[in-house]
Design a protein that fits this description.
By secondary structure, the protein is mainly alpha-helical. It has one domain. Helix content is 49%, strand content 3%. It is built from 15 helices and four strands. Strands 1-4 form a two-stranded antiparallel sheet. A two-stranded antiparallel ribbon has the order 2-3. The N terminus is likely disordered. This is Phospholipase. InterPro entries: PLipase_C/P1_nuclease_dom_sf. One of its GO terms (molecular function) is hydrolase activity, acting on ester bonds.
């Protein structure tokens, strides 16, 4: 049994951690017409320190609401250590780090004032080291970030577009006991359940994936797959967004909402809601059993093929969305899949308690047909963008239509008053 468990563990160690590589680009397309018929809201830029100093007395109450919700929904989540809780007596010099620790996120995260310039525009560029602590900047080196100044006015769409990408910049890195970080020892998340704690990007995996519909035997053999936390983050940042709007801080209302949307969008990616699409529990166990007696090829092929398709769809999506925005190709089938919604299809946000049933189940169910279609394309890895009528665009358009649907539903439910 331990060897069967190790197979699942090894596989989850090898899969890519990112869901959508281009949250900002996807959200840019969604927001192109989201406020159609009315002006895009303008908000005044405000530093995190200013927000925290003005709302000291309400922050911990908001976080406690999220923890109380999670206590019933996520039995594997341990309570926040009392010493970490945010206090209205916190000194102004310690506000930001204290806030991060109360959230149980990376205390070194840099909440700079910036926008991601998805569509090219002028402005003062923000160096990447002012945005993230990542050693491997990955695709961020391809992007342009522009500095903002406290007090200036900016469109709510720019805030949301930029914020939906931000959690991948380091917010959930090294938070477990075996992460080698100081906060990992006190946050109470235990050892990292899956993903490789020694790999920078991978250390955030349990916060960006949610496996809720695997066969019972898989959960019985690999119960660690239940220890995921995207719902916790969505609830935390939604509550903080509501608090910010309610107390007159719309910039942080939209920015926290963007952070929450990042995790929602992650869960719309089938490979983040299913461990091994199209691989039955019996087959998973079977290939492990034959590997025990020395025949490794079936297991190695399974891991290579599934992780390869996972990487392919994310890589392709990243470069396609960039191209569509750069060329303003709004009539492309993937662009229209994101932007076109009929009145009959108006999406409704069902709240946190409906997240698994409406977002994750939809993604899980999409996993098998999507994986089969990708396999049939016989594209081993991303190398080039294809003509508009290539079948990969139908696959990707279907997935991103769901991402757009749930993003729109969440935004429509925002408590902005």
């Amino acid at each position: 049994m331990n060897k069967i468990i190790s197979f699942v563990t090894i596989f989850v160690f090898t899969i890519p951690v990112f869901a959508w590589n281009n949250h900002a680009g996807i959200t840019y397309l969604i927001l192109k017409d989201h406020w159609k018929g009315q002006p895009t809201p303008l908000v005044k830029v405000e530093s995190l320190k200013t927000f925290l100093s003005k709302e000291k007395s309400s922050i911990q109450e908001s976080l406690s609401i999220s923890e109380e919700w999670a206590k019933n929904r996520l039995p594997h989540l341990t309570p926040t250590n009392e010493s970490l809780k945010f206090s209205k007596t916190t000194k102004d010099t310690d506000l930001i780090v204290s806030f991060y620790k109360a959230l149980r996120v990376n205390p070194n995260h840099k909440a700079s004032l910036y926008i991601q310039s998805v569509a090219k525009r002028g402005g003062t560029k923000l160096p990447l080291d002012k945005l993230t602590t990542l050693n491997d900047k990955g695709k961020l080196i391809n992007e342009t970030f522009l500095s903002l100044q406290e007090g200036q006015m900016i469109g709510a769409d720019d805030v949301l577009i930029s914020a939906t990408d931000e959690p991948d910049y380091d917010l959930d890195l090294y938070l477990f006991e075996d992460s080698g970080s100081e906060v990992g020892k006190i946050y109470g998340f235990g050892n990292q359940p899956f993903g490789n704690p020694a790999v920078e990007f991978s250390s955030q995996a349990p916060f960006h994936m949610g496996f809720y519909y695997e066969p019972g035997i898989i959960f019985a053999l690999a119960g660690f797959l239940k220890r995921t936390y995207p719902e916790y983050r969505i609830h935390q940042f939604t509550e903080l967004s509501n608090l910010a709007f309610r107390t007159g801080h719309p910039y942080w209302g939209y920015r926290f909402a963007g952070w929450a949307l990042h995790y929602i969008q992650d869960l719309t990616q089938p490979y983040h809601s299913s461990v091994l699409p199209r691989v039955s529990a019996a087959k998973q166990i079977g290939v492990q059993l034959v590997s025990i007696v020395g025949y490794q090829t079936p297991k190695e092929n399974m891991i290579r093929f599934v992780s390869g398709r996972h990487t392919l769809i994310e890589e392709y999506q990243y470069y396609l969305i960039r191209n569509l925005i750069e060329t303003k190709n709004w009539n492309h089938t993937v662009a229209t899949s994101i932007t076109d919604f009929s009145k009959k299809e108006k999406p409704i946000w069902s709240g946190m308690d409906g997240l698994r049933e409406n977002v994750c189940k939809e993604a899980y169910d999409a996993g098998e047909p999507m994986d089969e279609q990708l396999e049939n394309l016989e594209i081993p890895k991303y190398e080039t963008l294809y003509d508009a009528d290539h079948p990969i665009h139908k696959i990707l358009g279907s997935l991103l239509h769901n991402t757009s649907k749930h993003t729109r539903a969440y935004l429509d439910a925002l408590k902005r008053n």
